[in-house]
Design brief:
Length: about 300
Amino acid sequence: MITGNPLRGKIDYTPELEGFEPRVVQLRTSDGLRLEAWEFYREPAPLTFVLAHGWGASKEMLDQQIVFLCREGWDVVAFDSRNHGNSEGRVSSVGYHETRDLEAAVAHVRSGTHLGQTVFLWGISMGAVAAIRVAERDPSIRGLIAESSYLSLRETVWHHVRLYFGFPLTVLAPLVLAWVRWRARFNTDDLDVARSVGRITQTSAMFVASEEDRRTPPATARRLAELCAGPHTRVFIAPHGEHACIFADNQVAYANEVRRFVGEALERGERSPFAPTCGGNAADRPARRSKAIEADQSADR
């Protein structure tokens, strides 16, 4: 069931960090769980990306994103969510309690001086849900990349039951929601991502989906962008990639979209992360936008 993690301790994945060595740190959540995290930094760095993985994954499986961000000269913090990887916890909540995990990682960034204090979040699936909820609560988050998020827990449970079992077995959806409510100890109706994204007012946001993902299709990303009340939104619909695997299958185009998005988000604060040799002058970078921009899939492939 979704409150567990049958893959815990069974993921045999060796990350390819290409010479970027992590510093292992321990985080503590507001409800007392210990989380294992990696930090990558070089001083001075203009910003820090905090990465949040999806259900059944771990920080090691974000290695390609980590390498890309480190090559850009940005600091990175990646962590194992509760009940995942080397972190404590016995229950998963598909984004609800994991919000506390991401908040602990952001607090870690801000607790010292060695990491860039301009914070961006990059969440995938469950991690995207947590990232949206953190940005809702913390307007100082400069930018948010939400990949493969759902609209609400209720909507995604019904969608997945129909997708995998067919319409006759939709009777299972209320049972699944009741189980999550009992097992994870929260009101499942409170996990409403569409409502949360409408309360984001200060954070720039990019919503990402894949044409090949039936679990969280492009229409979901577009809807979240429409609802987002932030000052600048962007939508990137990748042509390839299964759920939570979009970066690996679209690295060049996805990386270019992230660069553009970060540049636009920092321009809003009159700062840019790009050195003149790699980012060009201000006239070459995209102007700040107040409405959603959808990336041209044909570009940069």
